[in-house]
Amino acid sequence: EAGVTQFPSHSVIEKGQTVTLRCDPISGHDNLYWYRRVMGKEIKFLLHFVKESKQDESGMPNNRFLAERTGGTYSTLKVQPAELEDSGVYFCASSQDGGAYVYGYTFGSGTRLTVV
Amino acid sequence: RKEVEQDPGPFNVPEGATVAFNCTYSNSASQSFFWYRQDCRKEPKLLMSVYSSGNEDGRFTAQLNRASQYISLLIRDSKLSDSATYLCVVKSAGTYKYIFGTGTRLKVLA
Fold first, then answer.
1. What's the pLDDT at B106?
2. What is the pLDDT of residues B39-72, one digit of tens each?
3. Rounded mean pLDDT of A93-105?
4. Pick from B32, B43, B97: which is nearest to A109 by CB?
5. Burial group, residue A64, by CB count within 10 angstroms (0-12, 13-18, 19+)
6. d(CA B98, CA A45)
7. What are the pLDDT digits (tens) for B24-45?
8. Interchain CB distance below 8 Å, A101 and B32
């Protein structure tokens, strides 16, 4: 079974530019999550999709961040315009219905974003 | 105060040693608890879920104390390959949202 795939693995952009991160969850997983780890801090929740619907977006830092999951398959996270404080590692994860309660998530390997 | 608190370490222990990590959480309504392992520049991977009665998986034992709101992880007979960061994770009540601790670094020395 293929795991959670994220692309790109690394991205270096200038302040003010736009970056789009992509996540392909495990096939059949309706639940998809985005998390972020900023340098020196803990991993923090950004948002949660159930199929194509945003279930919880309470962790999105501001309106420069836009997440979509058209068709309930892969998801994108766009940052526009990027600021220096957006630098960090962005993780995507997925789980089956209810799996998060006992079996946890499966994380992707992350996208390391550097804004210069 | 952070919702999930861990001692960041590092814990440097010799091979074969027993080491224990604790984690405290602030939300008494939290429902699910996990230990994840994260290697340097890699993604977190589930080590074990933590059940109310405590649970064991080989050399790893997890305990939950709801009254005191803490979770523990015990590693027996440490191996070099156990060197990693161990993340305490609490699932927020009523949602699928995970709250992570900052992680505890473990280095097992030869």
1. 97
2. 999 999 999 999 888 899 999 999 999 999 999 9
3. 74
4. B43
5. middle
6. 7
7. 999 988 888 999 999 999 999 9
8. yes
The chain B residues in contact with chain A (CB within 8 A) are 2, 4, 31-32, 34, 36, 42-46, 49, 87, 89, 91, 95-103
Within its chain, how far is the Cα of A7 from the centroid? 10
Sign of CA dihedral A50, A53, A56, A57: positive
A59 touches chain B (CB under 8 A): yes
Report the alpha-carbon distance of residue B47 to residue B34 in Å, rounded.
Answer: 8
Query: Are B49 and A35 within 8 A, CB to CB?
Result: no
How many Å lie between the alpha carbon of A4 and the closest alpha carbon of chain B?
10
Cα separation, B21 vs B23, in Å, equals: 7
Name beta bridge partners: A112: A10, A89
